Amino acid sequence: MTDSLPPCPECRSIHTYAMDSLLTCPECGHEWSAADASQNADAEVRDSVGNVLADGDTVSLIKDLKLKGSSSVIKVGTKVRGIRLVPGDHDIDCKIPGIGQIGLKSQFVKKIIED
Question: Does the global pTM surpass 0.70?
């Protein structure tokens, strides 16, 4: 039955269950309405050229990005593997070698389609 329920939006656990009109995560205790889950499932995250992104995709940056609070710059063409989609303004969570964990906006990346 848990296969038909969406993962927890907070911790991404797949062990969610329905309790009355709410969905509940046993791992982090987060509760949310099923209506919110269906609205989030309909929203697609697209890259700068319109390709649909999914968890685990590889993307590359289309412009230099200056890191706030630092003098570091992430250069155009930097390849980022194994992205994770999250709700919010910065809709991609990823780990960039040499930089660390960071949130990116999908408008600044292009999906790399590997054959």
Answer: no
